[in-house]
Batch of 2 targets.
Target 1
Amino acid sequence: MNINHVEHIGIAVRSLDKMIPYYEMLLGTPCYAIEEIKDQRVKTAFFKVGQTKIELLESTDPEGAIGKFIEKKGEGIHHIAFATDDTDKALQEAEKMGLELIDKTSRRGAEGLNIGFLHPKSTHGVLIEFCAK
Ligand code: CMX
């Protein structure tokens, strides 16, 4: 699937206003971008840690993915995103391996990346995202 590196780790939080200063203190680096992704029903905040980013995710709708996750499990790690050369190709290869796709084809996510998710039921409880420029 040509996975290059861990692009980001997504962390569900109740409040970006509260958690941005906390992560700035913890990581010793400023939040460099805040972006709302309307179709994902989230507001995101990004930090750089070497080649990998930390993406904080605040729900904008209790019925969205993050709203439901927080309601069920509380705050915490939500997904791991792997950088690939081509998200659509990675999704097709994952499907050939028998993994269940949430996205049959890639869609536009935060930072303009092409993203696609695998279902955690087929990846032993870890929500995996592929992303590519
Ligand atoms: N990690 C691991 N397991 C998860 C999970 C997560 N992040 N989110 C849900 N699950 C589990 C649920 O606990 C449930 O398990 P059980 O059946 O054992 O209780 C199972 O997955 C199915 O859950 P569900 O309630 O039937 O389905 P949901 O409506 O909660 O949807 C999911 C789950 C993963 C399909 C949905 O959240 C999704 O489509 N996610 C992809 C998109 C996304 O996460 N967007 C937000 C981030 C956007 C961004 O980064 O920009």
Note: The beta strands are 3-13, 33-37, 42-49, 52-59, 76-84, 107-108, 114-118, 128-132.
Target 2
Amino acid sequence: MFITFEGCEGVGKSTQLNLLKEYLEETGQEAIFCREPGGTSIGEQIRKVILNPENTEMADVTESILYAASRVQLISQVILPALKEGKIVVCDRYLDSSIAYQAYARGLGVDLVKKINYFAVENCMPDVTIFLDRSPAESFRATPGDDRMEQETREFHNKVYEGYKAEIGTSNGRIVAIKPDFDRNITKQMIIDVLRERGAIK
Ligand code: TYD
């Protein structure tokens, strides 16, 4: 089973990924956790180029291709081998981030971004995607971080959120929106319930 997590910046994604990891360990379910961009040695090098705030001249298409390149590396080196071994794979961000950030917020459009991501779209789509549904205005994080994406304008991040919302409607139920509670354990339980209902975890 291939599970991905999505959401805007500062919505508590990392916290929830850690809580899911704990739950899977406690219940003896073998899983691997990875993140995008990165998750492989080559991917982490690509990540540095993408997120370096000094790279202000990066073209939007370059950005989209770099995210896709990191993704293809992760798919071939980590995700597909683990799925073949019957492991649960949980990825922090995946294709839907490219749709929200590059297609909608950058304005490249869904068709172009899907073309750029042909190998990810064709070979390896998640079984279920958890979208932590919090808008930038409601974000748990008060101050923006210092990487190239986090330094984007509020307007950009609002478009990311709208992009995710649009994507949910076209995902045939694959993306499940969960409104995070202030109590992280309540959110954790909502996520586990959805993943169990979908048969993605026990
Ligand atoms: P990261 O520090 O991992 O962000 P977060 O902790 O919020 O997940 O940085 C990844 C950044 O890259 C984040 O701003 C989202 C962005 N991103 C894209 O724009 N497109 C993509 O395809 C992916 C995977 C991430």
Note: The pocket of thymidine-5'-diphosphate is lined by residues 9, 13, 35-37, 67, 92-93, 97-98, 101-102, 147, 149-150 (CB under 6 Å).
